[in-house]
Design goal:
The structure is a homodimer of 394-residue chains. The first copy, chain A, is an alpha/beta fold and 394 residues long. Chain A is 35% helix and 16% strand. In chain A, the strands form four sheets. Chain A has an eight-stranded mixed β-sheet with strand order 1-4-8-5-11-12-13-14, with helices on both faces.
């Protein structure tokens, strides 16, 4: 695994004029998807890997932009030449999901029915809707079948939905730090975040674009709450502990309600940064996408039944200190797959960084992913006739 | 342990005209403390038990008010005739702390210097300041020494501070579901709650009384966050799971951002209720009291050194699913006390209800507390000469 970068990249946009009927029954008349690609699609078009993003990320998975070289892709440590998802071997696609705020059609976009931004009128979508939109993008890019669909957290949910919905179009499902459904506590945190946004007077019921306001205060609180759930308590203790921000001469407390501890400074800074670039309606939408994901629901809660259509192979990874989507949740998926004798590799990584670990460069974690992708590459390089035999033996 | 209630009770108020110099260096010119008592003080005045409250509770520990019979004290299951803290044997005192909003002097009270409510001008107090104010109340009630000082969560911190600061005035320290100091994660949750309140436009920098507003939206979010941390994830899963609030005919999602799940309904209701009765400045103040508690701080982080002055005996209780103040935190206190060969009883209760367990009627928990108080009662009934001998043997 050599270090390397995909270098400078340029986002692209694809227009879809055929309406997309959503899980809710509503439909989006037409839409754009913003995406990036890294590496080269082979002549046989079998080496494509789709990377699905989580709550606040985007199509910008790897590399940098010429005009903003510091803005490196969110999974740049994972995707690139010689990296675990090796762009010397794979053609990697990152796509911004419908309803997000980084170029694809979402609440900030103009609603053709009103010539105003969608705002609150943008329909609630689901993981399955996203996957349907991604499949259309694959069609247009001439990709019949992905070597792998991969994602962490909410991205992992999309990978699972691909495995269920398009079993013939996905060779491997790589789902990291994810869950088959949110717990009551997960939903609770999302709902507090939504309540903070909705109760910001600058929110105007979601139509704040018309008022030329941004519900920054609500977004800030929402992000601060989210951020706490991404880190482990031990990691926070290690990184911040009770360290003080402004030490006075005698090291006494300030006895006020401003920033006293480093952790407060860090969290407020994270909240402020987030409120500058993220759209509040998108935050509402994507937290709802998370809440609603529950493939077992249509099967009376039977996850194995929900996963029965999947025929691909699976790599599942969880992290010991992830209390947002703890290893138990991933083990539920493993058990459900094993019940159908699916081919599953499961790695539980002893990492300190909580849910955030999926974005970090833990060596063991990256080695597992790299080894898994080496196997995929070997499989693709093998003469096509050999593949079904290998499958049957697995 | 027979069931029983202390019956109807009447809060009382005590005026203190001598200024109280606070840990911050500021002082409060004069103040009132609201308190309640249950049971009878013995002629020798040795059977008094002080109960210290946590964030949102008050002096109203047990019994009910004639005019509001439904408003039962917050620890009514613990304190009463035949209950673990048996008011047939003990004289129990509940006191509303300085800066709280249930009768004692706090941010809502009139600042004699301005003839306006204190608001943002109310000084930040500490656990130690509270304990000093409680000691003055004890003086006025003619109580030289408490048989026990007892509390859960923030109340447990006060019990610990009593043991350290007034070793001669406390026979037993009973600290439940508490911690020797907040973790970075604990502080983080408090800070998000404060940020929610401070960024509510109705907060007006803490002087909302003058504006005749109440930062209800901020308080609501603050309480929702707090509430999540009081319950265990498993308990939430058990009680709410992914149950839906409004089931439509076909059991489909509503595809909106209103209340979809039971847990959302529950949390928002808790938030709304809280915002009706709790003062926002008090919320800021009491979360800061929590943040600042750290008796080891003055001893270079050495908790054993901080606890060295304590000579009383200790009952410490923690709950397995409490992730706010988990058992490890209480075990730190146990270790520090054992280092000084103090007499400690420690019970780790296998309870499902997270931090909230300290308020609930878990049978094993209540049996531990009841047995401990029976010993205290026996000790008090023994001829005084026997006591020092028993001590030395312990």
């Amino acid at each position: 695994m050599k270090p390397g970068s995909v270098g400078y990249v340029t986002p692209q946009s694809m227009r879809f004029d055929e309406p997309l009927v959503l899980a809710s029954g509503a439909s989006i008349a037409g839409y754009d998807l913003t995406y990036e690609t890294y590496g080269k699609l082979d002549a046989d078009r079998l080496n494509a890997v789709l990377i699905c993003h989580a709550l606040n990320a985007s199509h910008h998975v790897a590399g940098a932009y010429v005009e903003r070289p510091e803005q490196v892709g969110w999974w740049d440590n994972m995707v690139g030449p010689g990296k675990p998802v090796d762009t010397d071997r794979f053609f990697v696609i990152g796509v911004n999901n419908l309803g997000s705020c980084f170029g694809s059609t979402g609440p900030m976009s103009i609603n053709p029915a009103t010539n105003q931004p969608y705002g609150a009128a943008f329909p609630v979508v689901t993981v399955e809707d996203w996957v349907a939109a991604q499949a259309r993008l694959a069609d247009r890019l001439g990709i019949e079948r992905f070597a792998a669909v991969m994602g962490g957290s909410l991205g992992g949910m999309q990978a699972l939905a691909w495995a269920i919905r398009y079993p013939q179009r996905i060779g491997h499902c790589i789902a990291i730090a994810t869950t088959p459904k949110l717990s009551a506590q997960n939903i609770a945190f999302n709902d507090v975040a939504r309540t903070a946004i909705q109760s910001d007077p600058d929110f105007h019921g979601g139509d704040y674009y018309a008022w030329k306001t941004v519900p920054r205060r609500g977004l800030r609180v929402a992000r601060m709450i989210g951020h706490i759930t991404y880190l482990s308590s031990d990691d926070m203790a290690e990184r911040f502990g009770r360290a003080r921000r402004h030490k006075s001469g005698d090291d006494d407390y300030t006895f006020g309600y401003g920033i006293e501890f480093e952790i407060e400074s860090y969290l407020r800074h994270q909240g402020d940064k987030f409120a500058e670039y993220f759209d509040a309606n998108t935050y509402l939408l994507i937290t709802r996408v998370l809440d609603y994901f529950d493939p077992a629901r249509a099967h009376g809660g039977d996850l194995a039944a929900a996963l029965a259509p999947a025929t691909c192979r699976f790599l599942l990874v969880s992290f010991t200190t992830d209390w947002r989507f703890p290893p138990e949740r991933t083990r539920e998926i493993v058990s459900a797959l094993v019940a159908h004798q699916r081919d599953v590799v499961y790695a539980e990584i002893d990492a300190a960084n909580g849910h955030d670990a999926f974005l970090l460069s833990d060596e063991r974690y990256h080695r597992v992913v790299a080894a898994y992708f080496e196997n995929i590459a070997r499989e693709l390089a093998a003469p096509p006739a050999a593949e079904p035999a290998a499958r049957a033996a697995a």
